[in-house]
Amino acid sequence: MKLYTRTGDAGKTSLIGGRVAKDHMRVEAYGTVDEANSFIGQAMTLMGDEKLQDIYRELEKVQHELFDCGGDLAIVGDKLPYKANAEMITFLEERIDAYIQEAPPLEKFILPGGTPAAAALHVARTVTRRAERCIVSLKHEEEINEHVLKYMNRLSDYLFAIARVVNARLGVKDVEYERSAIVFRSKDEKEA
């Protein structure tokens, strides 16, 4: 098998259902999803501690789901059934809710960092947000699987939550942004 085909040498690439320029918004969207997936993989290499193995396994699942999202973004029109679905989003929401309970209470914005694994997760989170913005831009122009957009939105929240849990499990405190107002309140405080 050859890794190069020479079919893209003129600046075009194949999608499922047609060919487009390599700088087409659809290519930018799935390419940025792939970039986020790569940063998640990098973060996983920093999770050798036994306390993080459940998160590591979840991230493996997420990596497969990101391939599904990228594949869905590579489909022009409705040529094939989409893979990304509501169950993937529900899983992330359930995990976020659990991790919020595990991490220390949060009132202010925090600086990305802490342990090497948490810092890498914050990078993956910001790339995931960029992928989400690319998908929104694509949605203005073409049809997409709406589950992909929702998934990327939840994924960035999930990555934030697990970055905080990684720091907590490894005994490293998050550093609050010192000029931050109190921006996160508990449910009880909001209702008061």
Automatic annotation (TrEMBL):
Pfam families: Cob_adeno_trans. It is an enzyme of class 2 (transferase). It comes from the Bacteria. Keywords: ATP-binding, Cobalamin biosynthesis, Nucleotide-binding, Transferase. One of its GO terms (molecular function) is ATP binding. Its EC number is 2.5.1.17. One of its GO terms (biological process) is cobalamin biosynthetic process. Residues 3-166 form the Cobalamin adenosyltransferase-like domain. It catalyses: 2 cob(II)alamin + reduced [electron-transfer flavoprotein] + 2 ATP = 2 adenosylcob(III)alamin + 2 triphosphate + oxidized [electron-transfer flavoprotein] + 3 H(+); 2 cob(II)yrinate a,c diamide + reduced [electron-transfer flavoprotein] + 2 ATP = 2 adenosylcob(III)yrinate a,c-diamide + 2 triphosphate + oxidized [electron-transfer flavoprotein] + 3 H(+). Pathway: Cofactor biosynthesis; adenosylcobalamin biosynthesis; adenosylcobalamin from cob(II)yrinate a,c-diamide: step 2/7. NCBIfam families: PduO_Nterm. Belongs to the Cob(I)alamin adenosyltransferase family. Homotrimer. This is Corrinoid adenosyltransferase.
